[in-house]
Each structure stands twice: as C-alpha cells, then as structure tokens.
User: What shape does this take?
Amino acid sequence: MHTLNTLNILLVEDDQDDVELMQDALRDNGIPFTMEIVRQGDKVIPHLRTCKNFPNIILLDLNLPKMHGREVLSRIKLSEDFRHIPVAILTTSSSQAEKEFCLSAGAKHFLTKPSTVEGFNKTIDEIMKIALQDSRMKS
Assistant: This one.
C-alpha cells in the first residue's frame, strides 16, 4: 500500500498524554513507526544535528517550554540541512492567524489536536499522507 517501510517520526511534544495518544493511534492503525520525542523547543535543532537518520516527518506542538513552536518551525525552515523535512503542526490552537503563520513559514499541514480516539485516527491518516507524499517526491 505505501512505500515507507517504517515511518520515522520526530514528535516535539511536552505533554506525555499526547505522546501516548499518538503512539497508540499509530499502533491501532497498524503503522510501523519509530518515534523520537523532544520535549523542549530549544532542543529540536541540536537533536536534528546529532540524529543518525532524519525523520520522515516532524510533528510539532506550538506551546512548548523554552522556545515556542513558531520559532522552532522558523529555525527548521531557515536551515539548509533541515528545511527538506516536512513539518506538521499538531497543536491545541485552532487560531486562523496561527495557522496562516505556520503554513506561510513552511509547515506542510496544521492539525488541531483531536480530543477523541477517532479524531487521532483521522490525524494519523493526514500524517501518513504528508510523509508518503514527501517520500514519493524524493524517489
């Protein structure tokens, strides 16, 4: 069905409940994945500099300790080394201004965090579309 063998995700999220919901939703949907978790905005670029394999997708929360997600997104997209990695914003915000800022700054998608298991399943579908679209463009 899809071309990725294992989805390599960098989840930038400080809420452990949201981390577990995302992992459960991926498992429930039968998606093979690896996930690295960064819990502070200021740790994302140093993490990317030292990781062995770049993620297929970065799922980025906006409300993070130490550095806001908007700043993290801007730094990723300004970097020659990392701008090619697709970033999906996954946040509790549903602000149109926030969405417009993130999309204009280079995010591939802006997803409001769901509050139900069904909602997370739909979110997983969106994440897979983004990651698969990006992998086809490279091959």
User: Anything to note?
Assistant: The longest strand covers residues 7-12. The longest helix spans residues 117-138. Strands lie at 7-12, 33-38, 57-60, 87-91, 109-112.
